[in-house]
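[Meeting: bench + compute handoff]

Bench side (C.D.) handed over the final construct sequence. Compute side (W.E.) agreed to return the predicted structure before the next meeting so the bench team could plan truncations. Sequence as handed over:
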Amino acid sequence: PAWVDLVFGFKQRGSQARKAYNVFYHLTYYSAEDVALIEDDELRTATELHIADFGRCPGQLFVRPHPWMRPEGFKVKAKKREKLTAKTTKMT
């Protein structure tokens, strides 16, 4: 599904994210800045508060498009729909 690519996949960062309008403030990304390395106490506190208020994006798990698979239930329904359509077509 498309949401997997947006949240965890290749559309989370970079040009694909920009094309999908899936970009966020730089501090929301885990690799953006190591808060522990910020020496200025006020800036570190402000950064921590910003992250606490707005949260963080989940880590990127996929760098290629996630394969889309139709759930089993949908396959069965599609086959039943085809049979019903075939039956009603024969009746007319």
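W.E. noted at the follow-up: The chain has a mean pLDDT of 82. C.D. will use this when planning the next construct.
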